[in-house]
Specification:
alpha/beta, single chain, 19% strand, 388 residues
Length: 388
């Protein structure tokens, strides 16, 4: 059997796959098992921040894998402590808890928020407000946190304690605040929800109300973090500082990682046995993340991300069939004439690896993509739209 046949026989059908079996990649280019070339503007859903097999990243993880590949969290790890120090210094936050995914990072943030409120106010102050159209993960609890009815099915009973406010509607948000609320969790750009960019005034007012009422502000930067929006973290566009922030995807550069960071008032909330993970803080993964930050966390690199995003937006808006573009940095949603899922599949057949978000096409290209590669991506999309 070939790869596709084995997949269909032995792997649970939890993804609607494109008809491609990838074999190798370098930079923004991937190749399938037949040697066909693809330009990838999906980055493994925003994960391959430096593209495929970046030389420096590969050297960092290979060197660490040859030194010590895993250790229990009962022991100290230089790669993990170095990464935690870097993240805290870059963000102004105080402490880090490591996991393996965005969902795990969000679970950790939920636990910290509820324990802080339990310790301070008692067990009844446990509700977390999230936003309609949000996405926070696929565990039972993070599905509950996700503000989309389509995800609230099959897996009953879901975790209680979540309320869903309408994005950019302050009156609706205020109506959800009562003495039961301990935290607010939001994405300043809703990625899976359609690349919806929250209004600055809304986010700042929500943050101020949280501070006034000792309601913790959790910012989910799983998809928006690590340079994706032209800032190291997307909340920097809004001039706010979260109490808790979650990071994943692009931080590892291609290896699984999830990080929950907290500010000073939360740094001692968790104690031994209140949370844990077997693989979190893996030294190989942390070595990769340390290298990613060494490349991304500088103004010149981030300015280039924003410049390339603006260039891409201008090129896209010039295409027949493109109705609008939602964009922050290189996080791009494209409204088109026609069915986005059908167009995405045809783009893949034409050599462009692209994904969707709701009824939009979505581009999350590697942050190192060049303008020539952006031109090629737009050209393939234009060809596909004309064929449709």
């Amino acid at each position: 059997m070939n790869t596709k046949e084995k997949d269909l026989q032995y792997i649970m059908h939890t993804y609607g796959r494109y008809d491609v079996a990838l074999k190798s990649g370098k930079g923004v280019v991937a190749y399938d098992e037949d040697g066909k070339r693809y330009l990838d503007v999906s980055s493994g859903i925003g994960v391959n921040s430096l593209g495929y097999c970046d030389d420096g990243w590969l050297q960092a993880i290979t060197a660490q894998a040859g030194t010590i590949q895993h250790m229990s969290n009962y022991f100290y790890s230089k790669q993990a402590s170095d990464l935690a120090e870097t993240l805290c210094k870059l963000t102004g936050l105080a402490k880090v808890c490591f996991g393996n995914s965005g969902a795990e990072a969000n679970e950790c943030a939920i636990k910290i928020a509820r324990k802080y409120s339990f310790d301070r106010y008692g067990a009844d102050r446990n509700v977390i407000i999230t936003l309609q159209n949000s996405f926070h993960g696929r565990t039972v609890t993070t599905l509950s946190a996700t503000g989309q009815d389509v995800f609230h099915n099959y897996f009953f009973p879901f975790t209680e304690g979540f309320k869903y406010a309408e994005p950019n509607n302050l009156d609706d948000f205020k109506n959800h605040i009562d003495e039961s609320v301990c935290a607010v969790m939001l994405e300043v750009v809703q990625g899976e929800g359609g690349v919806n960019i929250l209004d600055k005034d809304y986010v700042q007012t929500v943050a101020a109300l949280c501070e006034k009422n000792d309601i913790l502000l959790i910012v989910d930067e799983v998809q928006t973090g690590v340079g994706r929006t032209g800032k190291l973290f997307a909340h920097e566009h809004y001039g706010i500082k979260p109490d808790l922030m979650t990071v994943a995807k692009g931080l590892g550069g291609g290896l699984p990682i999830g990080v929950c960071l907290c500010g000073d008032k939360l740094k001692d909330v968790m104690s031994p046995s209140t949370h844990g993970t077997t693989f979190g803080a893996n030294p190989v993964v942390c070595a990769g993340a340390n290298y990613v930050l060494s490349r991304v966390a500088n103004d010149a690199f981030l300015d280039e991300v924003e410049a390339k995003g603006a260039y891409l937006e201008k090129k896209l808006l010039a295409l027949d069939g493109v109705k609008s573009v939602n964009r922050l940095g290189l996080m791009v949603g494209i409204e088109i004439d026609g069915d986005a899922h059908d167009i995405a599949a045809k783009c893949v057949a034409n050599g462009l690896l692209i994904i969707t978000a709701k009824d939009l096409l979505r581009m999350l290209p590697p942050l190192i993509i060049t303008t020539d590669e952006l031109d090629e991506a737009v050209s393939i999309l234009e060809k596909t739209l004309k064929e449709n």
